[in-house]
Amino acid sequence: MELLRGRAADTLVYHDVDGDGRVSAGELGEAALQWHAVEHRARAVEETRAGGWESAEAEAAAVAAVERRYEPLQNRDRSHSAAEETALRNEL
After folding, report:
1. Which of 35, 57, 66, 91 has the most CB within a 10 Å radius?
2. What is the pTM of this model?
3. CA torsion sign, 12 to 13 to 15 to 20?
4. d(CA 15, CA 75)
5. CA 45 to CA 64: how far, in whole Å?
């Protein structure tokens, strides 16, 4: 039972971005989007690597291009435009 309480507390802290002791619908939605983006990105990288590339350099360049597509959701420093983030959110 103590293990479950610990996991529940960890989950609350992880999702409670503003530290108010509660997980809002917005905080939960943002966490779900982040998880989905990571899963989607991993699948896209895996599919890209399976592409039968002519060279390791070509494969690395293709993987790097896939990684760059997900930067608007991974880097929360807001160096990307809101339009880029919205477009990727809609795709996911």
Report:
1. 66
2. 0.61
3. positive
4. 17
5. 9
